Amino acid sequence: MNGKKDEWLDVVSTVFFSLQTTLFGIGWGGVLVNSIYSNEPTRFTHSILSFYLLKTGVVGLGILLTIMGLWFARLQKTGNSKSFDISRLILLISCIPPLLIGMLFEPTYKMLSYSVTLALFTLALPIFEKKTR
Known about the structure:
The protein has 133 residues and is mostly helical. The chain contains five helices and two strands; from the N terminus they run ααββααα. It has helices spanning 4-15, 19-24, 48-78, 86-104, 112-124; strands at residues 32-34, 40-42. Helix 1 packs across helix 3 and helix 4 packs antiparallel against helix 5 (112-124). The longest helix has 31 residues, at 48-78. It is elongated.
């Protein structure tokens, strides 16, 4: 885990310090005294989940998880075996590992390549296909 547990503990102790920070976080400009970096202040964390919890609190993290849940529910509703040809399936499956790594372990969610991968994943979904007759 390379110190990620300590970082999560720092985020939780910072966010749950007061009711206001619990609900709304420390804001986008706020800094975290991170034990991974020898108690130096940083503006990011290594997980997008801990980052959103830190910056936007429980409300922002809940909104993020709700949007992701609705996105995958929509995928399950509209996705059928006819919608996924082999090239689209390969593209979707190849996008999943870098997206998960950015969500859980590394700060790659702050890089352009993460956004490009997320855009490819989104555009490869069948719900964004133009319907023609």
